[in-house]
Write a structure and sequence with these properties.
Structural class: mainly alpha
Radius of gyration: 22 Å
Strand content: under 5%
Largest sheet: none
Oligomer: single chain
């Protein structure tokens, strides 16, 4: 492959280790705090009304600033942005672990979101410009996809262990060694092609409109969870989000150096990837939350036992990503991995709609978790690769940011949407079955389970919709040489050269 030899970095596989470590840290943080939250609330005296902000402050800052972070990566250089993001994330984690009161903890969570918005897109875009051979790209994104898909469940396990055997503060402090090791490794082994930088001026109006629009959208769903969908503030936030994001599209179509070049999302394949990923995350994040409460409150599992109960899902994701997705990515079209992957996950979710007070873990929950993990892992891996493939190098950072934006906004929407559905179903069931209930405790638990299953049914439908979008939009007529579908060998590798050589 003489044409590609000059672009092959001999240290790229070592670099993948540190990029994957940083990605694991960011994904872990999205769920690791969930299990620790009750302990932190009791320790710091956080009110019930404010406890949601421990999660929301992170989601708002992360989701709202991701596009900005992606463009900063294109402007500064991905390696520099990656290292700054790591150092800042570690510092914010140290503040969170040492928090003395509620404002200090919430501020630390928001700062984690800010630096996460720099770190996540720079990590993914580094892979996009460092791995250009079709087979190598498949392996690299297989690792990355497994971490992106399974990291949330690993966070539940680690959060349970740290909270039960150490202290909730260690769910923050654990990020520091991750960040230090990844930063040292990045300095030593990551080498980014200089010609892939984008020296255009920063689109300040685009930054303001995108950030405020996404924050309004995420905050709107958060308020819907607490205030209801018809409340004035909720409706106002959704209207504001629509106006701001529409104005953002208009501005981006007219400025010379847009924050989000519309060519990035207008591509049929990338648009399909972003939409299907967002929908899949909507279903998945809600499931994590419901089943965590189901296993701890209904089944009486400890935090550690709850975390380990999710291990088969993690194993399924890793297997689906590295053994199915990565092996088939260069042989079959991406849609034939993404569509069936999301459908397999929906079957796993369908099994979980059958949970009850006395459900057996081995008989029902275990096979549901395995199917969900295998399906998601198989679908995530080609999605991660295709979402950044074929973009001009100067747009790699912002294309990567769109992947993370889909996940973060999808996660925030999913948690709020499915929580609202579950709460409503729980209340209705409790009212209609109050007369014949054997005891108040039994009614309360049965109502909770009914609410969870009602929400999981919605998640099944959402995953089926994700599969339909993937099969419909991620079409077989992709650009020749797409690493996700182009066959193996020199020809495929040569076709991928423009990703680095623009």
């Amino acid at each position: 492959m003489p044409e590609t030899a000059q672009f092959v970095d001999p240290r790229r596989w070592k670099a993948l280790i540190f990029i994957a470590l940083a990605q694991l840290m960011v994904v872990l943080d999205a769920t690791i705090v969930n299990i620790a939250l009750p302990s932190a609330q009791a320790d710091l005296g956080i009110s019930d009304g404010n406890r949601q902000w421990v999660i929301t402050a992170y989601a708002l800052a992360f989701g709202g600033l991701l596009l900005f972070g992606g463009r900063i990566a294109d402007l500064w250089g991905r390696k520099q942005t990656f290292i700054v993001g790591l150092i800042g994330f570690a510092a914010a984690s140290a503040v969170g672990g040492a928090a003395l009161n509620t404002p200090m903890l919430l501020g630390a969570r928001a700062l984690q979101g800010v630096f996460g918005a720099l770190l996540a897109p720079s990590a993914l875009s580094l892979l996009a410009v460092m791995f250009t051979d079709a087979k190598e790209r498949a392996k690299a994104f297989g690792v990355f996809g497994a971490i992106a898909g399974g990291g949330g469940a690993v966070g539940l396990i680690l959060g349970g262990v740290l909270t039960e055997y150490m202290d909730w503060r260690w769910t923050f402090f654990v990020n520091i060694p991750f960040a230090i090791i990844a930063a040292i490794g990045a300095v030593a082994v990551i080498r980014e092609p200089v010609e892939s930088h984008n020296s255009s001026r920063l689109d300040v109006p685009g930054v303001i409109l995108a950030t405020t629009g996404l924050v309004s959208l995420v905050y709107g769903f958060t308020r819907a969870e607490s205030d209801g969908w018809s409340a004035g503030p909720t409706i106002g936030l959704f209207v504001a989000a629509a106006v701001l994001l529409l104005a953002f599209v208009v501005v981006e179509s007219r400025v010379k150096a847009p924050l989000l070049p519309l060519r990035v999302v207008a591509d049929r394949n990338r648009g399909g990837v972003y939409a299907s990923l967002a929908l899949a995350i909507i279903g998945m994040f809600g499931l994590f939350l419901f089943l965590t409460y189901y296993m701890q409150v209904v089944k009486g599992y400890s935090p550690v036992k709850t975390g380990f109960a999710f291990l088969p899902m993690v194993a399924g994701m890793i297997t689906g990503s590295t053994q199915i997705g990565a092996r088939l990515m260069t042989r079959v079209p991406a849609r034939l991995l993404m569509g069936p992957g999301f459908l397999a996950a929906s079957v796993g979710m369908l099994l979980l709609t059958q949970i009850d007070l006395d459900t057996s873990y081995p008989a029902l929950i275990l096979p549901g978790f395995l199917l969900l993990g295998l399906g998601m892992g198989t679908a995530f891996m080609p999605a991660m690769s295709l979402a950044t493939h074929g973009v001009e190098p100067r747009d790699a950072g912002v294309a990567s940011a769109m992947v993370n934006t889909s996940q973060q906004v999808g996660g925030a929407i999913g948690t709020a949407l499915l929580n609202t559905i579950a709460a409503s179903a729980t209340t209705e069931y409790a009212k209609s079955h109050a007369a014949g209930a054997p005891s108040r405790t039994a009614l309360q638990l049965q109502s909770m389970v009914h609410g969870y299953t009602a929400a999981i049914w919605w998640a099944v439908g959402i995953l089926v919709l994700a599969a339909v979008i993937a099969i419909t939009f991620v079409n077989a007529g992709q650009p020749k040489g797409d690493g996700a579908v182009a066959g193996s060998g020199d020809g495929a590798a040569e076709d991928v050269v423009p990703v680095m050589a623009h």
